[in-house]
Amino acid sequence: MSALWSVGAGLLLLLLWVRHRGLEAVLVHHRWVFVCLFLLPLSILFDIYYQLRAWAVWRLHSAPRQHAQRVRHIQAQVREWKNEGSKRYMCTGRPGWLTVSLRVGKYKKIHKNIMINLMDVLEVDGERQVVRVEPLVSMGQLTAHLNPMGWTIPVVPELDDLTVGGLIMGTGIESSSHIYGLFQHTCVAYELVLADGSLVRCSPTENSDLFYAVPWSCGTLGFLVAAEIKMIPAKKYVKIHYEPVRGLQKICQKFTEESKKKENSFVEGLLYSLDEAVIMTGVLTDEAEQSKINRIGNYYKPWFFKHVEKYLKADRTGIEYIPSRHYYHRHTRSIFWELQDIIPFGNNPIFRYLFGWMVPPKISLLKLTQGEAIRKLYEQHHVVQDMLVPMRSLEKSIQTFHIDLNVYPLWLCPFILPNNPGMVHPKGDEAELYVDIGAYGEPKRKQFEARASMRQMEKFVRSVHGFQMLYADCYMTREEFWDMFDGSLYHKLREQMNCKDAFPEVYDKICKAARH
Predict the structure, then answer these.
(1) SS (H, E, C) 157-190
(2) What is the pLDDT of residues 30-63, one digit of tens each?
(3) Which CATH architecture has domain 63-233?
(4) Dist CA 385 CA 397 (whole Å)
(5) 410-417 and 318-323: which strand pairing?
(6) Is 315 strand, coil or helix?
(7) Strand, helix or coil for residue 192
(8) pTM confidence score
(9) I need a surface site. Which of 174, 178, 260, 340 has the fewest CB within 10 A?
(10) Within 382-449, where are the H helices?
(11) Domain ranges of the chain
């Protein structure tokens, strides 16, 4: 009884404090209170529901049987839209707050919402080494499903909640991308419902124009209903080598050298200042030195970026063996380093041991509850951007990030960009090594102004024939956007498939200058 009285008194004091400070002030300046008391428990319930659902679906073998029926329902909705006179654009009915993107899209309120309830793994074909999945399957769900079978996919983009559909219609990357390319380059086929309600399969040999135009199109060519993704054999561990490097020129040289080595299964860099970084290389293995195994994904472990920083502070190299699934999701618990701004004491050992099992809060729930004040605060004083630039421009790019943003750590992830048709390809006729520079956090640059600073960044990225990931805020004009991206195939298909009345152009859907 005394415990209940204590809890009650604590809640009463909390409510009085919130009333005194004002709810908006608490949510903006003490957001951790709301996150710890409400969003973390809700996130756990969210996860339990989806895990139980995925288990039940697979045990009952219902997903393959029901997939065709669910696709027919999508087709029926599209035909209904046509019969109504095609008066509005169409979009998926998935609420905007459920996406991992921090961008707030208001178009769902005025467009025809097509409900797409497709979130199951359909088939694992060991002979073809291909897994067939629905678009709302998440990376956490997929690796949990494949790893016990001895499989994984070549590119596992970092955060658990990223979905196959989002990674295809947008893009995805991981530290294995210097070998396999972006997520889209590991896909062998897509199935889409088009603007006329027809179901089409496309691959490099079947409807190839559509296959190459779908990535980066953000759902403006059709509704993705299934994808086939390559699989590779999984191994138990990733043997990681940590190497601190100082001096920007040396950092860029070392990172480029390691990115060109195909014997490295993984290459990643964390830049902690303009001239301090840790370069990590990894290889898949089934054998491990027991004393060097680090199960970094366990809830009580330090956040990965903080763990890596220890090698920099100690100025020493190191080798560890991380279980493969822990490695694939190594930045998930801290949402890279974003969680330190939400729960400042989140990496404290006491918090990790007591509450680390509840971390991270769902990004979708953070978006749902952020409110207009927090959204504006983040928009003006916070950056979440990934810029893809040629490796040859890495040093100049980092200097530009430092001048225009001054955000650290910076994430460095190399990838090979093949010369395929579509919106994103190298300037020349051959594949080229690129690097994703990820900036997530509060800029330390004086007089930072979001629109002006990001337009300056976008101008630089265009000048080196780079690309901006489209999940983030984009400030380009239409002319600038299509200067960055190759729209020739995309526009041709929109004309051929009568998409102009069915879906907005990708620019109108994602760019702030055009967004509704």
Answers:
(1) CCCCCCEHHHHHHCCCCCCCHHHHCCHHHHEEEE
(2) 677 777 777 788 888 887 887 787 677 666 655 6
(3) 2-Layer Sandwich (3.30)
(4) 13
(5) unpaired
(6) coil
(7) strand
(8) 0.89
(9) 260
(10) 394-404
(11) 63-233, 237-370
